[in-house]
Design brief:
The chain is of the alpha+beta class. The chain contains 7 helices and 14 strands. The strands form 3 sheets. Strands 1, 2, 3, 4, 7 and 8 form a 6-stranded mixed beta sheet that branches. A 6-stranded antiparallel beta sheet has the order 9-10-13-12-11-14, covered by helices on one side. A hairpin with a 4-residue loop joins β12 and β13. α1 runs parallel beside α6. 27% of the residues are buried.
Length: 326
């Protein structure tokens, strides 16, 4: 795996509507603090060096601006955080109903005319009942709401993480993430009253997004991580392996890893490489540049692929489809 420290500068973030600017800035600061903690990156936070880079003129203008200002920037790569508009959905939630048993006395019906439907028959039946004075007891159930309807809030948050190469202005990688309040388990299970507060909904969406951002930062800058050695094997089933990535690359205990190999396909006359998923791993022991992973499933497939000379690559599930992965 790539073992060199990557120097990156931090471009000013771009903000959007739907939440106070202070909320976006607070989230931005937390992301940068986490980047600083990752051994793989050396963060040079000198926004003054990037003051002439045009941020709001579209991707082409941004690339050109980065390239033109490249000589003034003492880092090879720039990182940018862009916020999309926070979307809000309001949903009615009933507080539930209470069932009450109601007992009533009503005039007895004339069984001979019970199934007749003409208005004349109805009038006669009513007249006969009232004249005889007969009554019967009717037991029914009435449902009443326990309180007024509560309008709950659900926020949808969008964040894009981008890495640019300073010398060319090229976009190296970009990952767009989406999160909602209801994805955060504690918020989803909270009372309707709690979920009716905009601040609580915004906080839940940010907490859900934070988990995704931490995962995406591990792979925002491509790495070449592979299955290196077999640690434990039983018959033709591999139980544990080592991968060539560790804490230096942001790998943590219990991280879930996908194992795959690339296979060439012919699509509409053109050759293209596709990922063929082989197995799933869970990190059990992690060092600076390596990690030992337990094979959760696909142990026989790993053995077969290695016997066939396949190079087994790794990625983190969350970024499997939206970024380069490792």
């Amino acid at each position: 795996a790539q073992s060199d420290v990557v120097q990156i500068g931090i471009l000013p973030s771009t903000y959007a509507a739907g939440m106070p600017i202070e909320e976006f800035k607070k989230f931005e600061n937390n992301v940068i603090k986490h980047l600083v903690k990752l051994e793989r990156f050396e963060v040079v936070r000198n926004k003054g060096a990037y003051k002439n880079i045009e941020l709001n003129g579209g991707l082409d203008l941004l690339r050109t601006s980065i390239q033109q200002e490249g000589k003034k920037v003492a880092v090879p790569y720039l990182f940018q955080l862009s916020f999309g508009d926070t979307e809000w959905t309001t949903n009615p939630e009933s507080p539930g109903q209470k069932s009450n048993i109601v007992v009533k006395k009503v005039p007895a019906e004339d069984t001979n005319t019970k199934n007749k439907s003409t208005s004349k028959t109805t009038q006669n039946k009513s007249s006969n009942s009232s004249s005889t004075g007969e009554e019967k007891t009717v037991v029914s159930t009435e449902k009443k709401p326990l309180g007024p309807i509560t309008w709950t809030q659900d926020a949808t948050m969008w964040v894009t993480l981008s890495i640019y190469e300073v010398s060319t202005g090229a976009l190296v990688n970009s990952v767009t993430l989406r999160s909602t309040s209801l994805e955060f388990y504690e918020y989803k299970r909270a009372s309707a009253k709690y979920r009716s507060d905009y601040k609580n909904a915004a906080s839940a969406a940010q907490k859900s997004m934070w988990k995704k951002v931490k995962t995406a930062l591990k792979t925002i800058f491509p790495l070449d991580v592979t299955v290196r050695d077999i640690v434990e094997q039983k018959d033709d089933k591999i139980l544990a392996v080592t991968i060539n990535a560790g804490t230096f690359h942001g790998i943590e205990l219990k991280d879930r890893i996908y194992v795959y190999y690339e296979k060439e396909y012919l699509v509409r006359g053109e050759k293209t490489m596709r990922h063929v998923e082989v197995a799933k791993l869970a990190v059990e022991d992690v060092k600076e540049k390596t990690a030992i992973c337990k094979v959760k499933n696909g142990g026989k497939d790993i053995s077969e692929a290695l016997n066939n000379g396949q190079t087994l690559k790794c990625t983190i599930p969350h970024t499997y489809m939206i970024g380069y992965g490792f």
